[in-house]
Write a structure and sequence with these properties.
flat; mainly alpha; 2 helices
């Protein structure tokens, strides 16, 4: 019964999300938006690179821990 009550709400939410996505996609970009987007894209790329490096270090540490624990077994 609860799922039936939620279904119309979920349908309305999905429709609202679709409308927002369409409005954002179809709006004209201003030059200020483009400059802000470029700066944001640079920061995002730098963050992705930093996270990738950290994940690589964690993978290396975990691989070393796995090798160390298998020699004790």
């Amino acid at each position: 019964m609860e799922n039936e009550a939620q279904s119309p709400a979920v349908t309305r939410l999905e429709a609202a999300i679709t409308a927002l996505e369409t409005a954002l996609r179809d709006r004209p970009a201003s030059p200020a938006d483009n400059a802000g987007d470029a700066a944001l894209r640079q920061r995002h790329d730098a963050l992705k690179a930093s996270v990738a490096a950290c994940l690589g270090e964690i993978d290396t540490m975990l691989a070393g821990a796995d090798q160390g624990s298998s020699s004790h077994a």
